[in-house]
Amino acid sequence: MSNYNIFPDEFLWGGATAANQYEGGYNQGGKGPALVDVLPSGKDRYDVMSGKLDYKKLDESTEYPGRVAVDGYSHWEEDIDYMIEMGFRVYRFSISWSRIFPLGTEKTPNTEGLKFYEKIIDKLNKNNIEPLVTICHFDIPLNLIEQYGSWRNREVIQFYLKYCKTLFNYFKGKVKYWITFNEINMLFHLPFMGAGIVFSENENQMEVKYQVAHNELVASALATKMAHEIDSNNQIGCMLAAGQYYPYSSKPEDVFDALDKNRDIFFFGDIQVRGKYPNYAKKKLQELNIEIKTEPEDEAILKKYPVDFVSFSYYSSRLTSADENVGEKTSGNVIHSLRNKYLETSEWGWQIDPLGLRTTLNALYERYEKPLFIVENGLGAKDKLNGDGSIDDDYRIEYLSRHIAVMRDAIVKDGVELIGYTSWGCIDLISASTGQMSKRYGYVYVDKDDEGKGSLKRYKKKSFYWYKKVIETNGENLEFYPK
User: Is the pLDDT of residue 226 over 80?
Assistant: First the structure.
């Protein structure tokens, strides 16, 4: 019987970044242009991310924060040293597709790009930190968008699989945990950021989204097949932007609306884990008069190659009603919600709901009966750098402590099988949704502002020492100890 105060001995504690928000180095090491390199800052960002505005129409003076980000390309070794000092057991990061295949269509990979990630992975392994690699995190070579229309074109599956094969072979025996696509359901909300989709005029946007989803789902299944064939030790996961919908009231219509909204989250997981389109999705496609172009072998591919684990991000729960005119809406989050009067909100309007994480863990585990992995969770907040180089982020400590406590409850009281926890943005990075630097998540502060100015010098926050203690005690003690 597990001790209630302690996580499983093998629990993987760590943090997460992604190349598109952390790495920068857009024109270094043979890297080609990528999706992130055309995501602007400012007022046009949302319209570009949602596929409504073609990035080619942006003004010449436009700033692109992802091109430099926090220059993880040059600072990766220093940043991993911080992770080692905190005692990380796992580090989730993504590989930039265009750093391996600059155009996406080359016959051979960019060796310099592979060697860059090899240095990172070797340093992690040397220090007993498990690499958790996201193969595609809101990322695709720009050439595949311009020449092929990105994931709307089935040919991109083959380019993706060549990229996967290169990674699986090159890093065989060095990487065990892989994620095929980050927050795959985000393509329904931000089609360009999620999958490189720019809509043309009078196009059936919903049909395009489902076609893109199908192509990525087939690609994910084939990548899973390939990974297992190359190395039987490989563990492949899907990744969902999760967070349960609550009904606004006990009115039956509200309860059913919450059930229906949760299906939008489950749709991808149902296919990647259960191996087939669920009946509710088939009915929805019929009602929308959407016909997905498929190949005869697709059904068997999806069925035969499910993922090994389910990873997900959790930042907040959501509230919904069948009545569109009821309640007040929240601001900030891409996935819209009504305001829940029982919850506090962050500076960016995200509702803070630790118990909702336990609810989400149980919902996913009961549905899929696969090991779970929390690969994103955290509080975006404005941090103040004090004159002595310290940062007092007690608000972040409180947020994370409350969420980790309910993770423990889910494991010990509910029997949820949870592999590990990688809090988001362990090193400060730029926000995916806003492009801002001021929306910080990390244990390590990076000196840079929203205008891109700053030394990029790193500073340890108060939460750095707190998380170090959490890992040292394997989650037994979540209170703060001074350094």
Answer: yes
* Segment holding 266, helix H or strand E: helix 252-274
Distances (CA, A) of 88 to 81, 82, 103, 397: 10, 9, 34, 17
State the Cα angle at 232 between 227 and 233, rounded to 5°.
95
pTM of the entire predicted model:
0.97
Q: H or E stretch including 160?
A: helix 155-170
Give all domains of the chain, ordered by start, each with its CATH number: 12-472 (3.20.20.80)
Give the tokens for residue 176: 């065990």
Tokens linked to 294? 């498929």
Could you tell me the end-to-end alpha-carbon distance of the chain, in angstroms, rounded to an integer?
Answer: 34
CB atoms within 10 A of CB 225: 15
**297 CB burial (10 A radius; 0-12, 13-18, 19+):** exposed
Write 195-200 long-range contacts (CB < 8 A, 24+): 195/140, 195/150, 195/151, 196/35, 196/140, 196/144, 196/145, 196/150, 196/151, 197/51, 197/149, 197/150, 197/151, 197/152, 198/51, 198/54, 198/55, 198/145, 199/51, 199/52
Please provide residue 65's backbone torsions phi and psi, each rounded to the nearest 5 degrees. -65, -25
Per-residue pLDDT of 171-188, as tens digits, reads: 999 999 999 999 999 999
Q: What is the DSSP string of 278-315?
A: -HHHHHHHHHTT------TTHHHHHHH---SEEEEE-S
For residue 336, the model assigns a pLDDT of 78
Pairing label, strands 245-247, 90-94: unpaired
Please identify every residue annotated as catalytic.
376
Which tokens is 242 given?
A: 């999760």
